[in-house]
Amino acid sequence: MFKNSTFAKRRSSLDNISKQRKKYPDIVKAVIDISDVVLEILDARFIEETRNKDIEEYIKKKGKKILYVINKIDLADAEKVMGLIKSENLYPYALISCKERIGSNILRDKIKIEASRVKNRYNRKQVGIIGYPNTGKSSVINRLVGKPAAKISSEAGFTKNMQKIRLSKDVLLLDAPGVIPLKEDANIHGRDLIKQARIGIKDYNKVREPEMIAFELMKKYPGVFEKYYNIEANGDYDLLIEQLGRKRNFLKKGGVVNEDKTARSILKDWQENKIKVE
């Protein structure tokens, strides 16, 4: 089912995609250049996958402090998160859950502390905020300021320009577009498409090859999907799709299961955090 990939057929659209995407890293770098401190928003479930190490290197090269903000902590194993923070030396850090309203006050205090340590000629400190799409960057900003100040979307580049948001009289937040590293091109590399769909960057309605992604998810997390859907498939993807499609009445003419629709429904459940990985 998955051997005859169609990725190679999409090269004709690569130039246009690249032009649209290349401008966003430039804006992110401009935000970093004028920031005193930079927050990198990470998804607690996918810390390594949502780190932009190229941007981190650029921040360090500019001599700026990074504060790692680990969001969606309510959806992750806290012990594993703390282990990763230690092993990867992600200090200073802050744990937060916008949904559960956890950690926003502590984060606000840490921002002020880190900003106060920076000496500049201006009274107001500027704090840049970067992150992959769908890590909750805009939600973090809205929790910090206590009102809807940043627009929310999981799509890369939804915030197209720098947004300036006042945190306090002494601290100004600079919201940068959510950026996927240029080397990750989901239109060419299947592995990147799978990663981006898994962490929610590519919406279940818009991904290509939903069956391949659902197949890879099932392979990566054995037993999890069978348990959630209460289907005994014993690791057999085709059997899971067949039974789930009939269970949800996702049928085409002739009573054949609509595999695309069924796979997208699995991705929808995954991206909406209904399926938990223990």
Output the keywords.
single chain, alpha/beta, Rossmann fold, Conserved Hypothetical Protein Ylqf, Chain: A, domain 2, 2 domains, 6-stranded mixed beta sheet, 10 helices, 41% helix, disordered N terminus
Q: Could you walk me through the main structural features you see in this protein, from its secondary elements to its overall organization?
A:
The chain has helices at residues 14-34, 53-61, 78-88, 104-116, 137-145, 190-198, 210-220, 224-229, 237-247, 259-271; strands spanning 37-43, 65-71, 93-95, 125-131, 163-166, 171-175. The chain has 2 domains: 20-175, 3-Layer(aba) Sandwich (Rossmann fold), CATH 3.40.50.300; 190-271, Conserved Hypothetical Protein Ylqf, Chain: A, domain 2. The longest helix is centred in the N-terminal third of the chain and has 21 residues, at 14-34. Helix 3 (78-88) links the parallel strand 2 and strand 3 (93-95). A 6-stranded mixed sheet has the order 3-2-1-4-6-5, with helices on both faces. Helix content is 41%, strand content 12%. The protein has 10 helices and 6 strands; from the N terminus they run αβαβαβαβαββααααα. The chain is elongated, with a radius of gyration of 21 Å. By secondary structure, it is an alpha/beta fold.
Secondary structure elements and their pairing?
Blueprint: H1 14-34, E1 37-43, H2 53-61, E2 65-71, H3 78-88, E3 93-95, H4 104-116, E4 125-131, H5 137-145, E5 163-166, E6 171-175, H6 190-198, H7 210-220, H8 224-229, H9 237-247, H10 259-271
Parallel strand pairs: 1-2, 1-4, 2-3, 4-6
Antiparallel strand pairs: 5-6
